[in-house]
Design goal:
Length: about 400
């Protein structure tokens, strides 16, 4: 892990003497990271893909930092050991950034804390760079009932660097019609062999669902898509099958895939992948017990890799096609949802997955989660319907990343 320390020192100081003055700090950093010291005059030689920290080496550099504002990475992090009036200068610089509505963090004090924060900042930087330039395929239009889950493409592009590509459903349908059952025989056999049970869905339905998966994947490859949102209910009318299996397999293969054209939840899945490299379970809160702080989450698809075992079912609402009843591991989970048209709000909570439920009047994959926070958010201030469930406790990195990118936490 290479850290580019952009050194700001007073014009009255010599760079060699400044390095000697701060030798204790630099030597400690070199135990954990590869350090590349860069004079502030050479900051433009670094690329946008280079991780940068501002090393405030002395006082009297406040205006130098302001003058190089356009070349700085944002949010800004200032590293200082306090010597040569460097902490005083850092406080002034931080106040200036905050007065302009930007986030600025001073790294100072306990060294173990500084190292920890540098790791957090690096992971945030890497995740933000990963999101920039991602191509999201919007296949079809959002489901009519998702009245609060739209995304403003322009605002999302400005904030996150994501490109949205609208793709008509007919393109998937045309490919679906050209794929034969024989072409997917082996894939169907492999899928069925992994299941612990095969219930309502028929072999014919599995073939149709696998053909649909193959058609969507071909579109993803042609358009070089990193993620897709599928208008699955509209697709059922044309293909007579469901997209649940397709979305499950695509997520397992690293193509982030979400249901019902919900772009806000799809972006949340992208955040999860960028920060922790994992997939999430996109689900409806289906039952809430406020006094017990319990929520039952359910949906008809989940990545097979997120489950311990799975059952092949049909789709709950339409009683057709193929759906996945996944049995998830119990234990710590995190619930996350990003919202608003410009993707600048979020909800996050940890909890404990206590049970895989099997209610007959809900979607196929169902889990009961006891939250660590009150569930009044869902009843009084929800960002929308779908929420993303991730195995493990990941509240800290999600919160850190989203707050650093000027998102508002909703509780």
């Amino acid at each position: 892990m290479t850290i580019n320390l952009v050194m700001f020192a007073s014009v009255l100081s010599k760079s060699t003497s400044m390095i000697n003055v701060h030798e204790a700090l630099l030597s400690e950093l070199e135990k954990y990271f590869t350090i590349n010291l860069v004079d502030y005059k050479d900051i433009d030689k670094l690329s946008d893909d280079d991780f940068k920290l501002l090393f405030i080496a002395s006082g009297g550099v406040e205006r130098l930092v302001v003058q190089h504002f356009e070349s700085l990475s944002h949010p800004v992090a200032l590293l200082t050991d306090g010597l040569q009036n460097s902490l005083a200068a850092s406080l002034e610089i931080s106040a200036w950034f905050r007065s302009k509505g930007m986030r600025c963090e001073i790294l100072h004090g306990d060294f173990s804390h500084i190292v920890q924060r540098i790791h957090f900042l690096y992971n945030n930087f890497r995740a933000k760079r990963m999101l920039a330039g991602q191509r999201v395929g919007v296949i079809g239009t959002p489901s009519s009932w998702l009245i609060a889950s739209d995304v403003d493409y322009l605002l999302a592009k400005r904030r996150w660097g994501i490109d949205f590509i609208e793709i008509p459903l007919e393109r998937v349908y045309d490919k679906f019609c050209t794929i034969s059952n024989q072409e997917v025989d082996a894939s169907c056999a492999a899928f069925v062999s992994q299941a612990m049970a095969f219930r309502e869905a028929s072999a014919e339905e599995v073939h149709k669902a696998m053909r649909l998966y193959r058609a969507i994947k071909q579109v993803c490859e042609e358009e070089q898509l990193n993620a897709i949102s599928l208008s699955c209910f509209n697709l059922i009318e044309q293909t007579k099958t469901t997209g649940c299996l397709a979305l499950s397999l695509l997520n397992d293969e690293g193509i982030i895939a979400g249901c019902e054209g919900d772009l806000q939840s799809l972006f949340t899945l992208m955040i999860v992948k960028a920060i922790i490299g994992e997939s999430g379970f996109m689900a409806n809160p289906s039952m809430i017990k406020e006094e017990k702080k319990e929520v039952v989450f359910g949906h008809c698809t989940i990545g097979l890799k997120q489950t311990e075992r799975f059952i092949i079912r049909n789709h709950f609402e339409t009683q057709s096609g193929v759906a996945i009843q996944g049995l998830m591991p119990t234990g710590d989970v995190t619930i996350l949802r990003c919202g608003n048209e410009s993707l600048d709000e979020f909800y996050v909570s940890t909890g404990n997955l206590v049970e895989n439920t099997n209610y007959i009047n809900m979607c196929r994959t169902q889990v009961r989660v006891k939250l660590d926070t009150p569930v009044k958010y869902f009843l009084k201030n929800p960002l929308g319907n779908h929420h993303i469930l991730i195995n493990g406790n990941w509240e800290a990195p999600f919160k850190d990343f989203l707050l650093a990118n000027k998102c508002k936490r909703v509780e």
